[in-house]
Amino acid sequence: MRPGRTAGQRGRVRQSGAMDGPNCGVAPLRHARSTTRDACCPQATDNGHVTRAVGVVLDPSPSQERWLRSYAGSMRAAYTWALAEVRDNLAVRADERDRGVPADELTPALSWTAFSIAKRWRAARDNIHPWHRDVSIHAFRTRLDNAANALKNYSESRSGKRRGAKVGFPTFKNRPPGRRSPSSSSPTGSTTTTGSTPTATNMSG
Known about the structure:
This protein has 205 residues and is an alpha+beta fold. It has two domains: 80 residues, no CATH class; 94 residues, no CATH class. It is built from four helices and five strands, in the order H-E-E-H-H-H-E-E-E. A five-stranded antiparallel beta sheet has the order 1-2-5-4-3. It is globular and about 60 Å long.
């Protein structure tokens, strides 16, 4: 018996149906170890409410691990697509300016907001990510939101609105050989994989 752990923390946690997804054909997670920790140094609100997180180390079956890997790949694909679209739009407009194209005739600039990026992705997803129906929408939304935030930081840094060190154009996400560290979020929590240990975080009040 490990000291400092309750019986509930030592026991098995069955995630009934939590990892089910369309066409994945996987069973619920076999078991997990849970620990409780404060989420990002939680601050008490005016009414004394404190948000805490419960981290659960997952033990996925081989089929579930393949499913998680597909999520990681989908998230990288969404992030890369969002950045590439903006980068290419900037390059086209810069080339048109160099060729003396009048400002009112330049290729329209793309909006960098999360809403606009998600809207363009939904219009193009059947062509660029035809497997999207086999993966939760949260996998794509997470990285599209991340891309929008990264672009916002870059824009505000370039304009001087953001203080601190200069922020460059966001870098593309590539998986280093032998390493994976995806993170996805949903309205009820998030899932992170670092090294070979996937962890699910449930946010609760």
